[in-house]
Amino acid sequence: MRFYQFAGILGCTTAAFISITPIQVEAATFKVISGVTSIDRDHEEILSSIGLILTGTNNTVAPIPSNYLVGFNIDSATNFTFSDEGGFTPLSGTIEDTGTVTFNKEITVGDFSIGLAPGRTVTGASGLVLRDTVSLNTILFDLSPQGLVAFDGQTLTIPDVKLLISPEFASILGEPNLSGLFAGTARIDAQVAAVPEPDSVLATLVAGAALLATRFSTQKIKCS
Prior knowledge:
Elements: H1 3-20, E1 29-39, H2 41-48, E2 54-58, E3 70-74, E4 81-83, E5 89-92, E6 94-98, E7 100-103, E8 107-110, E9 113-116, E10 128-131, E11 139-143, E12 150-151, E13 155-165, H3 167-172, E14 182-195, H4 198-223
Antiparallel strand pairs: 1-3, 1-4, 1-14, 2-7, 3-6, 4-5, 6-9, 7-8, 9-10, 10-11, 11-13, 12-13, 13-14
Helix pairs in contact: 1-4
C-alpha cells in the first residue's frame, strides 16, 4: 500500500472519528512559574501582640499591592500545579518563595514553601500550608480556603488568604492554645503556564496525519 493511500485511509478514519465524537470541555492543568507572595500589615500587628516583633527583612521584594507589608519573590524552583476545575483546584508541587524576615533580632524565618499537606485537621484550613525552610524547618501557618480567586489563563491572583498559626509553630512558641489563631492576611499574584495533557499530544499527531492525508490526496487528483 502506498503512503498516500495509507494517509488517505487515516484521514478518512480521523474525519469519521471527529464527526461522531462529541466535543468535551475538560479542565486544564497549569503550573506557577513566577510572581510574588505578599503579606499584609495586619500580620505584623497580630504577631507583635504575642511578642514577635519584626526587626528586619532580607532579599524581599515590593509587595502587591504596595500598601502591604512585604513581598517574597516566587522562585524558578516552583513546581506548583493546579486545575481550573471549579475555578482553582490545587494538584501538586510547591510555590517556593525567596526572602527572609527576622523577629526580635534573633529568629529568622523565610524562603517559604507553600504546598499541600495531606492529612491536616486544622479547623478552617484548606490543606495548603506555609513552611519555613531557613531555621525552624516546619509548618508555620495553615492557609484558609481560597476565596475569590482571579484566573485568566495566564495570571493567577489569590487574595485575602488567612494565615492560621499551625500546631507546630504554636508548640515552638510554647503556647499550644495559639494553634489555629488568625495571624494575618497573605496574597499570591502569579504568572502561570499551561501544562500539556497527554491527550493533546495525541490530538496534535492525529491532526497532522489528517493534514498529510489531505495534501497527498490533492496531489494524487492533480496527477491523475
